[in-house]
Design brief:
The complex is a heterodimer of chains A (208) and B (573). Chain A is of the alpha+beta class. Helices cover 50% and strands 17% of the residues of chain A. Chain A has helices at 21-24, 41-46, 48-59, 84-98, 102-110, 121-124, 130-140, 145-154, 171-186, 190-207; strands spanning 31-35, 61-66, 71-76, 114-120, 157-161, 164-170. The chains are: A alpha+beta (208), B mainly alpha (573). Chain A: Belongs to the PNO1 family.
């Protein structure tokens, strides 16, 4: 008997290119809408191009401002490379709305591991009236120097919005900044906080 | 006293003498009567010799033994003294003794007899009383004396008396085999041999002394305490007689001690008195040089010498003196060793074992664990204050300096936390960090590096200046032109600190501001043609710019159009 040494011709393994974001969602376009608080309206107008350019050019996300609804709308495009771009852009815009500067918020677009953490003063300690005002004053310091010192020491960005506090940075740095801010709310003197920050940063610098 | 009373007295004495010893044990009235009579007789016989005495005769009727004895004592005390004085006197002038001897011998004998009888009587009276066996001793001694003519003076009587007494008392113990007296003699001989010459000498002295002691009856009688008598007793009566006589014991005890350690002067209270007398009389010469004991010895020796002229020379040789000195020292030390130690020499002594407040008197030496409290005086405070002043002036305060820790790691550079708003965005910060991690070389200069750079430039400047000063042939370094942008901003704006004087001067010089060339004319100076020329020039410039703009715009639009077309094509496909 003749052995059929020749196998039947096997079909070529198909080569599929990775799905684009657009195709992944079955061709549907995804939207994000970020509302604009009234106090950020004018700064948005001023910084619009700075926001628009990286979103549109680099992230490949469509962005527009809905004036009637006072929202910023984001939409994926066909050539959006990654589905997460949309979310990143949404976070970026949202960060801007919270009060962060564009240049700081842009870091969200560039790095994956940056987060924004928010909490209120009343989460830490119930303060009323003058005490609250004093606590807010302690947080920022004279001319904002306490806030800046925390920012510089921990490589984060902090926004103090009356009651709310927003921190933008990597996870570890957020934690350090949050501890510093909480100790300030609870009543620690700024000098103590500074010295602790110095220790922490020196230690963290050694680690790397 | 009258003759008949004398006779009666003598009769009584004889009677007493003739009674058997056992009869004395039981009190009997007749014996008592005779004793009293004898005492009276003796008293009377002695009375003339005493100059002053409260009693002319011995009162015996209804008198107690003690009282009778006191009377006798009162009489005899001064008598004894006087006799002693006489003896001393005769010591010095032995020649007189020869003269007095025959007289004295008779009188002495009588006196001795009388004395003996007295004592016998006393003993009799005191049989049941508290009177010591002393008197018994005396009695016995006297009886012995009576027996032995030649030797028995008062003093030696006792020795013999003791012998007699011994014989009497040890009647039960002795038999033909065991002679206590012989035993005692033997023992004493042994002791004498053992302890040296002293005892023997004393013994012999005493024996010989006793022969001569006719005048010293009273002395010897009194001298129950007298050493000679004691020694005598010691010789003849020894340990066996222990329980019999307290006095005997005392004397024997004294004698024993004396045999071994030399004569003890003044064993009991009367002793010092005698010693004083002895001291007075024999204070001259040898006794001054020697110690007490030896002086006592000497006294005794001298007394003995009085009696036995030949025994010892009055003046001792130097060697003998030294020997005596040493002996006395040895005796002292031996005595000290025997005595119980003083409380300071005992080991652990509590407060109960030592006399009150005795620790205060002794110089105690013990370790003080506490530093003694410093006494603050003027000088101390002065010195302290001077030190303080000096230190303050110097500024040397003995502050505690932190001990430097071991440098295990390189000291990490402490970046001072910047209190100003950071110029870089967050993204740039992370970018820098990332770059530093991945490619350290390309990293931008850290803060310390910048500082180092600054420091190095400063140092270079300094070196340049120093070189210029120090070199003869100084060649300045080529100037490296450093570019820095200078903006035409008023100087005031550049300064951070408010200047005292405000200046409007611009930073740039006019020639730096001027950006033209050639002959510059103001507008007023221009002629018509020149104005026209200027306008034409301006128009030409403007036109050129406009065309450029238009061209670029057009290009952009074209591009966009192309893109759209491409996209549309793609969709269609």
């Amino acid at each position: 008997m003749e052995i059929d040494g020749v196998a039947p011709p096997v079909a070529e393994k198909p080569l599929f290119e990775p799905l684009k974001a657009h195709e992944m969602s079955d061709g549907k376009v995804q939207f994000r809408k970020v509302s604009v608080p009234p106090h950020r309206y004018t700064p948005l107008k001023k910084a619009w191009m700075e926001i628009y350019t990286p979103v549109y050019e680099q992230m490949k996300i469509d962005i527009r401002m809905n004036l009637k609804a006072r929202k910023v709308e984001l939409k994926t495009r066909v050539d959006t490379p990654d589905i997460s771009n949309l979310q990143k852009c949404a976070d970026f815009v949202h960060a801007f709305m919270m009060g962060f500067d564009v240049i700081d918020a842009v870091a969200l677009l560039r790095m994956d591991e940056l987060y924004v953490d928010s909490f209120e003063i009343k989460d830490v300690k119930t303060l009323k009236g003058e005490h609250k005002s004093r606590a807010i004053g302690r947080l920022s310091g004279k001319g904002g120097k306490t806030k800046f010192s925390i920012e510089n020491a921990t490589k984060t960005r902090i926004v103090l919005a009356d009651e709310k506090i927003h921190i933008l940075g990597s996870f570890r740095n957020i934690k350090i900044a949050r501890d510093a801010l909480c100790s300030l709310i609870l009543g620690a003197p700024p000098g103590k906080v500074n010295s602790k920050l110095r220790q922490v940063t020196a230690r963290s610098a050694e680690l790397f | 006293m009258g003759r008949p009373s004398e006779a009666a007295g003598m009769e009584a004495l004889h009677q007493l003498k003739s009674t058997e010893p056992p009869q004395w044990l039981a009190p009997s009235a007749s014996l008592s009567e005779s004793a009293r009579a004898a005492s009276q007789h003796l008293f009377a016989s002695l009375r003339p010799h005493v100059r002053k005495s409260p009693f002319d005769e011995l009162l015996v009727d209804n008198f107690d033994a003690e009282q009778i004895w006191q009377q006798i004592d009162l009489l005899t005390q001064p008598l004894v003294r006087s006799i002693r004085r006489r003896v001393k006197h005769w010591e010095k002038n032995p020649a007189e003794i020869e003269n007095l001897l025959p007289e004295v011998a008779d009188g002495g004998k009588k006196v001795a007899q009388g004395k003996k009888m007295e004592e016998i009587d006393d003993d009799d009276d005191d049989d049941g009383g508290d009177m010591d066996m002393d008197d018994d001793d005396d009695d016995d001694d006297e009886e012995m004396d009576v027996d032995n003519d030649g030797e028995q003076d008062g003093g030696k009587d006792e020795g013999d008396e003791s012998e007699e007494e011994e014989e009497e008392k040890s009647g039960g113990i002795e038999d033909k085999f065991l002679k206590i007296k012989e035993l005692q003699e033997h023992l004493e001989d042994e002791e004498a041999r053992h302890y040296g010459l002293d005892a023997k000498n004393k013994k012999s002295k005493k024996k010989s002394g006793s022969k001569k002691l006719e005048d010293e009856d009273d002395d010897s009688e009194e001298g129950e305490e007298d050493k000679e008598e004691d020694d005598d007793e010691d010789e003849e009566v020894d340990l066996f007689a222990g329980g019999d006589d307290e006095d005997e014991e005392d004397e024997m005890g004294n004698a024993r001690y004396e045999d071994f350690f030399g004569k003890k002067k003044g064993g009991s209270e009367p002793k010092p008195r005698f010693k004083d007398e002895l001291g007075e009389d024999s204070s001259s010469g040898e006794e001054e040089k020697e110690e007490e004991l030896s002086s006592d010895d000497d006294d005794d020796e001298e007394e003995d010498d009085d009696e036995n002229v030949n025994k010892k020379p009055k003046v001792l040789s130097t060697h003998e003196k030294e020997v005596q000195k040493i002996k006395s020292e040895i005796e002292k030390m031996e005595k000290a060793n025997l005595d119980p130690k003083t409380w300071t020499m005992q080991g652990e002594v509590t407060a109960a074992n030592r006399p009150k407040n005795s620790a205060l008197e002794v110089d105690l030496d013990f370790e003080h664990n506490v530093r003694p409290v410093p006494v603050i005086t003027e000088e101390v405070t002065q010195s302290l204050e001077e030190i303080i002043k000096k230190r303050i002036i110097e500024g040397q305060f003995d502050d505690i300096k932190r001990a430097p820790g071991l440098p295990s790691k390189a000291p990490r550079e402490l970046k001072p936390v910047d209190e100003n708003k950071s110029n870089k965005g967050l993204a740039e910060v992370y970018e820098e960090e990332f770059v530093q991690q991945t490619d350290p070389a390309a990293a931008p200069l850290s803060f310390s590096d910048e500082q180092k750079k600054e420091a190095s430039t400063l140092f270079k400047k300094l070196c340049l200046k120093l070189d210029a000063l120090s070199h003869f042939h100084f060649a300045p370094k080529p100037i490296i032109e450093d570019m820095s942008i200078q903006s035409n901003v008023p100087a005031l704006a550049m300064e951070e600190i408010a200047p005292v004087a405000v200046s409007d001067a611009a930073m740039l010089a006019p020639e730096e501001v001027f950006s033209g060339k050639g002959n510059v004319k103001a507008e007023v100076e221009l002629t018509q043609t020149e104005r026209k020329r200027r306008r034409a020039k301006k128009k030409r410039k403007f036109k050129a710019v406009e065309t450029k703009k238009m061209a670029s715009k057009k290009a952009r639009e074209d591009e966009l159009r192309k893109q759209k077309e491409a996209a549309g094509n793609g969709e269609e496909q």
